Amino acid sequence: MRRGQGALEYLITYGWAILIIVIIGGALFALGVFNPSNWVSNKRATGFSSVQVKDWRATSSGVDLILQNKFGSDINLTVIVATRTSGNCSWYTPDGLTVLSLDGEEQVLADTPANCITGLDTGDTYTMDLQVNFVANGIDHVDSGVLVGKLE
pLDDT at position 75, please? Predict the structure, then answer.
């Protein structure tokens, strides 16, 4: 008869421990700890090597870029082409804007065409292929990558 009481106490002790673990797991799930989107940035730029996209903002009026020169010498921007599934848009930098290589100088490009982000509402996620054409040391170069973000 004593053996049954010991087994029952053993099961009840483990039952309480399992119940506490389930409650903690449910609370963490409700707080969104297990949601991967909470751990991944809403904005990311990948694939660029010579010209780094430091920051950008896409709104219904267009795309603003901050580019940083990582090439190693002065570069002269010629054309930037953005591509989305809804169509292409491109803009030329004024008179081949030069971005100096001094300490990775940054250059802000604003007032880009709004047709790059047509068909999106504020908060919608977009993926945009970006191609940056530039001249360095008298040779044409192309650097490309992908921008992912949410329309602001």
Answer: 84
